[in-house]
Structure formats: C-alpha cells, structure tokens
Amino acid sequence: MIRDITIGQYYRADSVIHSLDPRVKIVGTLLYIITLFVFSSFAGYAVAAVFFGILVFLSKVPLSYIIRGLKPVFFVLVFTAVLNLFWTPGESFFTWGVINLTWEGLYKAAFIALRLIFLVLGSSLMTFTTTPNQLTDALEKILRPLRYLHVPVHELAMMMSIALRFIPILVEETDKIMKAQAARGADFESGSMIRRLKSMVPILVPLFISAVHRANDLALAMDARCYHGGDGRTKMHPLRYSRQDFVAYAVCICYSLLIFVV
C-alpha cells in the first residue's frame, strides 16, 4: 500500500506532455477538474476518458503506473459510493429489511465514483510529467498578480513545492521503517482495530523524527547558500511559451467547449 502512493512523484520520459510549459499543464489540469463537475450524463465522462487516454498516450507514462495511484484512495471511493447508494431516495430495485437500494442511488454512486477517479488520475498525470522545480516556477508566475495584495507568492509556491517533494521521500522512509519493524517481529495486519492503531506508534514516532531532521537539514542548506525569496532572484531555466504551448491552450479550450456542449 505504501509503495502505491504516487502523488508527488515525477516519471522521467521524453514526451510532448513533459516538454510543455508547466503553466499550461497547471491551467489544463484545473480546466479538466472543473469540467468534471459540470457533467450531467455519462456521455461527458466518455469524452473525458477519451481525452485523458490521449494525454496518457502522449505522455508515455504507463497507464498501470497511473492507476496504481488509485489504491490509497480506494476506501474513500467505496465509502462515498456506498453512502450515495444507500441514502439516495427514488425508485427501488432491491429491498431487504431496512436496506433499500434505488436506481437513482445506483446512478449517483457510479457518477460520484467516476468523478473522483478522473479527479485523482488527472491530478496525478500533472505531477508525473512536471518536476517540483517547474511546479514552483509555474505557480509563482500564475500567482504573481497577488503580490499587489501583499501576498507572499514566492514563499507559498516554495512551500507547495517542498511539500510535494517530501511526499515520495516520506513514503520511502515509511516503507523502510515498516520493513525494519517487521524484521523485529512487529505485526501490523492481525488483531483488533485498537491493536493495529497501537502497532503504528513504532512507525509514526521515528517517521516524525526523521521528517523533523530532514526539514532542519533543508533549512540549514538553504541558509548556507544565502537563499532568500522574493524579487530579484533569477532562474536557471526561465519559463517561456513556445508554439506548442499555445496549441495546447487551444486544445484545452476546445475540450472545455465540447464538454459544455455535451
């Protein structure tokens, strides 16, 4: 389960999607997520599935690797679907005691489950094809107008980037700690729920200490290099739009218009 967490991980490949400006990918992902909430029929999800499949093909990221990211949120998907299935009134198709299943509940459960699946997959594809540094630069560029409202844009973008970068590191650290505890005879699978929660203490404590040490090392490294955010900082790879970026914007706009038509 720990290794199935793919959020924040970057998949290196030479593809059209990887070469796009990160601002295009962020805006495109936001548009894709917004369109997921305007669907009123399954036809919209069919269009979204085809569009997402084309993006996966162009990104050269294995589909199995992307789908693997759904495992950590599988419980949320099932729980949400079950709630909508059992608590939506309408025309019944199965009744047993206090259990009453309706066609409207079944329709809504499938609808919500598909929305969550595409939401996770679409967001994951952006992080797979964009490095944390590129995300930081893109967020800083997009949020630049907020500086006039005295919002620390650079600091916010840096915090988001560091958080994304620490996710795969902490996942790997958790996996190592669990293997070390299992080698010492720790059991995380059997017993009651309370016992399982207690067995997580030997994992959480060293993980918390390791995270604090890593954060301290990062702060010392930034201070040793005289790092300071804000205006005046130059970029090794400044962001510049190319022709393919404008084409990508046009494709995103056409997709959004098609979704609203459907």
Name the helix and strand elements from N-terminus to C-terminus, one letter apiece. HHHHHEEHHHHHH
Structural class: mainly alpha
Molecular shape: flat
Approximate helicity band: 55-70%
Give the biggest beta sheet. 2 strands, antiparallel
How many DSSP-defined strands? 2
Distance between the termini: 37 Å
Folded structure, characterized:
With 262 residues, this protein is mainly α. Helices cover 66% and strands 3% of the residues. The protein contains 11 helices and 2 strands. It has helices at residues 16-19, 22-36, 42-59, 63-67, 74-87, 103-128, 132-142, 153-183, 193-199, 201-224, 243-261; strands spanning 92-96, 99-102. It has a two-stranded antiparallel ribbon. Strand 1 and strand 2 form a beta hairpin. Helix 2 runs antiparallel to helix 6 (103-128) and helix 7 packs antiparallel against helix 8 (153-183). The mean pLDDT is 81.
Q: What labels describe this entry?
A:
single chain, 262 residues, mainly alpha, two-stranded antiparallel ribbon, 66% helix
Brief digest:
The chain is mainly alpha-helical. It has helices spanning 16-19, 22-36, 42-59, 63-67, 74-87, 103-128, 132-142, 153-183, 193-199, 201-224, 243-261, and strands at 92-96, 99-102.
Question: Topology, pairings included?
Answer:
Elements: H1 16-19, H2 22-36, H3 42-59, H4 63-67, H5 74-87, E1 92-96, E2 99-102, H6 103-128, H7 132-142, H8 153-183, H9 193-199, H10 201-224, H11 243-261
Antiparallel strand pairs: 1-2
Helix pairs in contact: 2-6, 2-11, 3-6, 5-6, 7-8, 8-10
